[in-house]
Amino acid sequence: MPDDTYEVSQGSSNCLAKIIIPETHNDKKVTQIKESGFENCDKLLNISFSNTIINIGENAFNGCESLIDIIFSDSIKNIGNNAFAGCSSLKSLTLPSNIASMPDLYLKCFKDCSIKEIKILPGAKVIGDSLFYGCKSLFNVEIPNTVTTIENHAFQFCKSLSDIIIPDSVTTIGDLSFSCCYSLSSVMIPDSVNSISENTFASSHLKTANQ
User: Fold this and answer.
1) In angstroms, what is the C-alpha Rg of the chain?
2) Nearest residue to 162 via CA among 143, 145, 144, 137
3) Tell me, what's the pLDDT at 130?
4) Of all helices (H) and strands (E), which one includes residue 141?
5) Is the pLDDT of residue 205 over 90?
6) Quick check: 16 and 22 in contact, CB under 8 A?
7) Tens digit of each residue's pLDDT (9 = 90 or more) over 11-29
8) The pTM is what?
């Protein structure tokens, strides 16, 4: 990490309820959340990221069971493995385009969260690999018509997802992207899709997939 920047963590405190990440500390930019920096901070309710944060480390907020609200910034370029996994009180999520489109960075970032609704803001072009893997309570997703690619495993094991609207901007749907979505009964695949894996909906109990 550059000498003119800071990374933050909870230190010795495990009773934080709200975190507002500042842009600077001692005249240095705060750019990173330390790996496992707030892991198992079980009283944490709210997080707001400043516009200087670039990197959120692996397991940074893993196991924050009381977390209900996250405000992401447009500056974030990397989110580590399992960064928000196990945040079982997180019910809804709004993702700016920079978050949704990060390639190959998530690796089950929101696994075992209780997210029911997700809104991806316009501008996103990609829904990243394994982005919502294992979001077992997820039943509603808003995908903007700027998205062109849904990558591998994006919604795998979203067991409550029963309906999804794929916009006609999408051209590619990756391998196993909706596999093991046991409640998914039908989906309309737009004519724009020209690449789709034969395993995209594997074990999803899908009855109809029309194009």
Assistant:
1) 18
2) 137
3) 86
4) strand 140-142
5) no
6) no
7) 545 667 888 888 888 888 9
8) 0.84
Q: Which residues contact 15 (CB under 8 A, 6 or more apart)?
A: 43
Confidence (pLDDT) at 10: 65
- Placement of tokens 């977390």 in the chain: 67
Nearest partner of 111 among 93, 87, 91, judged by Cα: 87
Give which of 150, 164, 184 is closest to 117, Cα–Cα. 164
Q: How far is CA 161 from the centre of its chain?
A: 16
Tell me how far apart the alpha carbons of residues 185 and 16 are, in angstroms, rounded to a whole number: 42
pLDDT given at position 27:
87
Cα(41)–Cα(17) distance, rounded to whole angstroms? Answer: 9
| Residue at 11: amino acid letter | G
DSSP classification of residue 205: -
Q: State the average pLDDT for the chain.
A: 86
Decide: 120 and 95 in contact? Cβ < 8 Å. Answer: yes
Q: Residue 128 — pLDDT band, cuts 50, 70, 90?
A: confident
Please list, in sequence order, all residues whose beta carbon lies within 8 angstroms of the beta carbon of residue 72, skipping any fewer than 6 positions away.
49, 94, 95, 96, 99
CB 150 within 8 A of CB 172: yes
Tokens representing 75? 């500056």
